[in-house]
Structures are given as structure tokens and as C-alpha cells.
Amino acid sequence: MNSVIIELKDLQKIYRTGDVQVWAVKGVNLRIQRGEFVAIMGASGSGKSTLMNTLGCLDQSTNGHYLLDGVDVAHLSRAALSRLRNRKIGFVFQSFNLLSRTTACENVELPLLYTSPHVSLRKRRQRAIAALNKVGLGDRLYNHPNQLSGGQQQRVAIARALVNEPELVLADEPTGNLDTRTSIEVMGLFQSLNEAGITVVMVTHELDIAAYCKRIIVMRDGQVIRDETNASRMMAHEQTAMLDASESHAQLA
Q: What pTM value is reported for the model?
């Protein structure tokens, strides 16, 4: 098994508007090992979202190479690229993107309709329930999104990303719509998934969210300007305990 799940070699992305060229990503070289938990940070326009779209095979680079688990995605047909993406990658977004008239379980089943159309309804339901149990929502299987809190909706979205059993989860600002306590809970879930062996790459502009990751990559003007191990990594369970103590103190005061 390849220990490097993501490898970028002189990756470039250029957008052209008439005679104007905009360099969104400028010659990025990067390796992410299997089992890492990485935050990609940067201001608006830094190239982090473009880079994330490239990692997710949602967009193609202009020049350079992207190897996903050793496979150069530029050489794949659209159908082969779709199969690789669906098999290897799970996506989590800031907006939960849940179907409002569909239960949590049915929302989680949806990717299986496209990636495993020949799997029986019973099997799809079993896999969806297993994914929801993994994120702590085994008692909310048949609730609709409007019956769930924001944090619970994001957990459904994470379960949906996990239902195909991907090796890599890409999360784009997954706590952007959540309050502090719920953000800590969601980051705790990502930490648990990572400890179970799933590689997690997360885009965030929040330093306190990046602090939960094992490695922090900072981008500016389409280039990586910093790439370092997070020596002072925070653990979600510790932050939850501190938040509980602070709230108890405030109530007593």
C-alpha cells in the first residue's frame, strides 16, 4: 500500500479571462501521508479553495501533476476519474447540503445510489445506519433535517461522506456555520475518524479550528508559505471539559 495518498508536483492552476491570466495556484509541491490530519489555511484569494477542489478531483490543474494514491488523475477519463473519486474520497462542506424532505438515513444512502447502484436497498440501509451510528446519530435515523440541530445536520453530512468507506475525507470549512461548542464536538468527531485511520484534509480560516489538526499548511497568493507539524495540538475532549468548567463557573458567579 502506498504510504503517500496525495502528491502534488509543481501544481499550477491558471484562470483566463480574455487576455488576463490569474494564477490561483503557483507551482505547489506537496505530499500528504496516509493517516495524516491536515489543515489548509489562508486568506480569501490565497488559493486554498482552488487547491481543495483539485484534491477532490472536482477541478483539474492547468499544469503539473496530482497523484491520488499513486494514480496521476490527469491521465484518467472522466468516467475513470469519477470512479476513483467516489471510491477514495468523502466530502464534507460548510453548508450541510441535506435534502429537506428526506430522512437522515435516506440522505446518507444517496451516494450509494450513484456509486453502488446494484447494491440492494437492504444493504444500502445497513451501510447508512452503520455510518450514522459511527457519528453518534443512531437514534436520529428517521428524523428530517428540520428536526435536527446544526451540529446533528453536520454529523449526517459526515456520515454521508463516510458511507462509501473512503480513505480520504476532504472538509471545506466544516464548522463555519456552527457555534463554539458544536464546533468542538465536530472536531472531536474528525479526530476520532483520523485515529481510526482515515486521512483528513480540512480547509479553514480559523486558527482555533486548525489547532485540532496534526499539520498546518498556510497558503498565500497561490503558494504554500508555511508547512509545519502542529506541536501544540488541541484535543476536543479537553476543550469540552474546559468549556464545561467555564460555563459552570459563570453560572455560579
A: 0.91
